[in-house]
Amino acid sequence: MPHLMAKATHPRSKFTRAKAAELFAALAADRPDPRTELDFVNPFTLVVAVALSAQATDVGVNKATKKLFAAADTPEKMLALGEEGVAAHIRTIGLWRNKAKNVIALSRKILEDFGGEVPRTREALITLPGVGRKTANVVLNEAFGEPTIAVDTHIFRVANRTGLAPGKTPDQVEAGLERITPAEFRKGAHHWLILHGRYVCKARTPECWQCAIHDLCAYKPKTPDPGKVGKLGPRGPRKVT
Fold first, then answer.
1. What is the pTM of this model?
2. Cα distance between residue 22 and residue 7, in whole Å
3. Last residue of some domain: 92, 127, 144?
4. Which of 40, 120, 176, 241 has the fewest CB within 10 Å, making it most exposed?
5. Overall domain count for the chain
């Protein structure tokens, strides 16, 4: 008897399409012009910046790339700078030795395989050393205006906490977001979610009291306004003894 493979299942969103549209409309009103906080001057420097951002903050990457990109903003210039030259600029970033190797390797591959131009497909981008699906999605979205959604730790948290696109892996969350996000919000979805996670829906203490979507969010233990706790706190007035 032939073996029947179980059909893959994905966690279901707690949102309807209409409710998801309401959520993104609220985030859009809160941040009308969302964009990456990484500094870059062209698609090539964006690839490098995103590759450097793994296990590093955008602020830290920007400090390092300010001088790096002034010296080398094309694959040709980066190769001329060399691995040691790149390393000298990025020593303040985690995993800098390996990242310097990847920057040189991806620069060489862009020159040799893509005529010096950053490729415009995910399949081609992920062939570059140090570039995975998340980095490719960021580049496609930010540099080329594609409606891709890159799932980082902030988006993974927001998608699960709100119930918008629950999942156990980044790939599951990405697939869920692609299913539930209305077309008119797809291009900005990555930025709205990442910025919301970075500044409001924080890992340890989400700032629910100033959240634009807190009425839509499935997260039950809403964090109270710390300025009101102890006065009218989460359980009502404090007894005076």
1. 0.85
2. 31
3. 144
4. 241
5. 2
Residuewise pLDDT in 10s, the chain (241 residues): 444 444 456 789 999 999 999 999 999 999 998 889 999 999 999 999 999 999 899 999 999 999 999 999 999 999 999 999 999 999 999 999 999 999 999 999 999 999 999 999 999 999 999 999 999 999 999 999 999 999 999 999 999 999 999 999 999 999 999 999 999 999 999 999 999 999 999 999 999 999 999 999 999 988 998 887 554 334 333 333 3
The catalytic residue positions are: 134, 152
Q: Are residues 158 and 76 in the same domain?
A: no
Looking at the structure, tell me whether residues 95 and 159 fall in a common domain: no
